[in-house]
Hints:
By secondary structure, the protein is of the alpha+beta class. It is built from eight helices and ten strands. It has helices at 12-25, 38-45, 49-61, 90-96, 115-121, 168-174, 194-200, 244-252; strands spanning 65-68, 72-75, 80-83, 101-112, 128-138, 141-151, 180-191, 207-217, 222-231, 235-238. A hairpin with a 3-residue loop joins strand 1 and strand 2. The chain is elongated. The mean pLDDT is 84.
Amino acid sequence: MKPLKRDHPLPLYVQLLEALRGDIQSQRLAPQQQLPSERELCARYRVSRMTVRQALLELAREGLIYSRVGKGTFVSEPKIDQQLRTLTGFSQDMQARGRRPTSRVLEARVVPADDEQAQALRVPLSSETVVLSRVRFADGTPLAVETVHLPHSLCPNILRHDFASESLYQVLEHEYGHHLTRAEQTIEAALATPRDIAILQLNSPASVLIMERWTYTSNGILIEHVHSTYRSDRYKFRSVLATHAELQGESSG
């Protein structure tokens, strides 16, 4: 533990923030470990409670710590860092990271396409669509609420599968011969709804990441529209950018 410097140009709360952040990133403070109380931090670093609270508030905003009412403050699990360069399903992505993916089905039925889904899937109004809504878990922790819509004509009777344990993408490929090769995706930040907070076990108020995806087969057929809500304290998305010249070089190679 390095002492805070009163004559340092950085405010005391920023010095404390950096010290605690360093302990978390180096895992001197391990995931799920309880932090010392505000009183203990005040005594340890010889700072006021206001200084401690400012530092803890910023760590919480960064998703590095979280509080449990009546129990204290704990170190968060590291965020899952998903690159946006490859098209993978949740199950395959978690398995590749050595995590255990599971799901709980909230809804699975065939419904007539309303205006919104008819437009999203580019299918006729009232045509049959499959809606599959699931909570997605990694090692028992809820990370996302995912709702998928599919044209039923492209995957008839698909709901005979148990998607609490099976991978949708594997079923689409192996049983129906749909090779998913391309997707368009948008991501935006939002405040969690009461339903999100209950399902994802968040403390209110909480921020989430909203992902919307349109997935295409190798034949250029739009097969899937997905709306997902991810925990922003446990998930982050990363993209790799290239210059225009590099992209031209790849396309000509």
